[in-house]
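Notes on consecutive records. When two proteins share a document, each keeps its own sequence and its own token line. Never mix them. Below: protein one.
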Amino acid sequence: MKLQQLRYIWEVSRHDLNVSATAQSLYTSQPGISKQVRLLEDELGVEVFARSGKHLTRVTPAGEAILQIVGDILQKVDSIRQVAQEFSDEKKGTLSIATTHTQARYALPPAINEFIKMYPDVSLHMQQGTPMQISEMAADGEVDFAIATEAMSHFSDLIMMPCYHWNRSVVVPKDHPLAQVSKLTLEELARYPIVTYVFGFTGRSKLDDAFRDRGLTPRVVFTAVDSDVIKTYVRLGLGVGIVATMAFEAEQDSDLVALDASHLFEASTTRIGFRKGTFLRGYMYDFIKLFAPHLTPEVVQKVQACANRHEVEEMFSGYDLPHH
């Protein structure tokens, strides 16, 4: 059994069983991958992939169990490389982050700006996606960190730490009737068409919960993943916008009015997550601290030592997290 063979079956599974695409991504030949996969299956005495002719059709039950172990092995191999690089050159390497548009556009720039100044030789990569995609990428080891508000709790392989609380504002044109209301209510808000985030994005579940708890059905006429897109359609008169407060910028959005809605909706919490067993290099600890100053290396190491998520939640129960 060779490490190369394990990497091949892992990558084939990640490329939807497309051996040709796998070969391209690994800069090798399709016949070479197919041969090594067959040799591994012959050695193990079970098929990892079911076939129809020359085509792979699905992962077998034995293959599912094998691939889960292979994922852990490859992560350990990557950790060995990270350890070696940390001791050979602690200021060089890569850092990959997966996050949503709102975090990338409004929350992360100050931390990334400082990080680049501190570590100019670290190559930084950012991917954007849905909270579910972001969490999957971190759980599968495709990125070092996932930063999101929703979905990460669905992945047991992720260690999650709270970064900050945030709430929402209602944005309307200056001549909109709501701009004259002294204190916004859900009943008043429900009278108008609403433009907000797609379900599953940026704390959208808290918004829906608030209306439901009051027996109200909001008339959501347009949804988007991007706060800037939401504000664009508010300007077009499509409806009133509900966005993360951090997404309203007084200078750029001077044609709009932001109405505080923090009394209407429960605050949401943005978290940073990484896969259990990940070896964190020194600059990774520094990035976490730049983004969430209370998450010092000592605190993160205590989190890594926690037995389960309940212990992590208990650990942060007394923290006064910042509000954005």
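Protein two starts on the next line and is unrelated to protein one.
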Amino acid sequence: MGNVRRVASVMGIRESAIEDYERYHRDVWPEVLAAISAAGIQNYSIYRFKTLLFSYWEYEGDDYEGDLAAIDDVPACIRWNDLMATLQVPVEEARPRSWLPLPEVFHLK
């Protein structure tokens, strides 16, 4: 495997959807978890502050863009992302239906 890449991003969530969003994430579909793991993503967390979601994961592999694109080809992931899009609200400057990548400011190893 390749080097580890740390990824953090932010997304909004509809206030009325917080309960549903958290319920879905207590029981993420197994096919979605398998696709994420197969893409080299590990140590994945999502945090919430009011109506902001912050995600963090580590990617280990050699083809970051290709491995992430492979997730979007998995039927369960397509359905999951379509469902999450009904609950989420992209933050300013983000592409539609996309989390906004955050620059790393500090890292202590």
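For the record: The two ends are 20 Å apart (CA to CA).
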